[in-house]
Amino acid sequence: MLLFAISLKPSCLKQHCRYVRTVTRVLELAGEAVQQSVAANLVVLIGEGSGDDEDEDRRLRCESVEHMVVSPCDLLPRGVE
C-alpha cells in the first residue's frame, strides 16, 4: 500500500513537500524495499520541479534540502551533547 501511495505524482507545492518528506523517510527506513523508479521520480521532482511555477519549484528545492540535511547533533550518540 505504501509503495503505491508514494508512487503517485503530487500536484501542488504542499503535496510535493509531503511527498519528498515521505519518500525520503521510507528510503531511510527501508530503502531496499523501494522501487528504483520511486527514487528516480523523487530526484526528478526535486531537480526539475513541476514546471508549472518556478517560485514553487524553488521553494520545493529549498525545503527538500533543509529536510535532507543532517544536523551534526543527529550524528551524536543519544545522551551526548
Describe the overall structure.
- With 81 residues, the chain is an all-alpha fold.
- It contains 5 helices and no strands.
How many discrete structural domains?
Answer: 1
Give the overall silhouette: flat
The N- and C-terminal alpha carbons lie at a distance of 39 Å
What about the largest sheet? none
Query: Segments where pLDDT lies below 50 for 5+ residues?
Result: 1-6
Cα radius of gyration in angstroms: 14 Å
Task: Tell me the β content.
Answer: under 5%
Give the oligomeric state.
Answer: single chain
Q: How many helices does DSSP assign? A: 5
The residue fraction in helices comes out at 55-70%
Q: Which H/E pattern describes the elements?
A: HHHHH
Structural class: mainly alpha
Average predicted local confidence, pLDDT: 76
Question: Briefly, what is this?
Answer:
This protein is mainly alpha-helical.
Defining key terms:
single chain, 81 residues, mainly alpha, flat, disordered N terminus
Topology:
Layout: H1 2-7, H2 13-30, H3 36-48, H4 54-68, H5 72-75
Helix pairs in contact: 2-3, 2-4
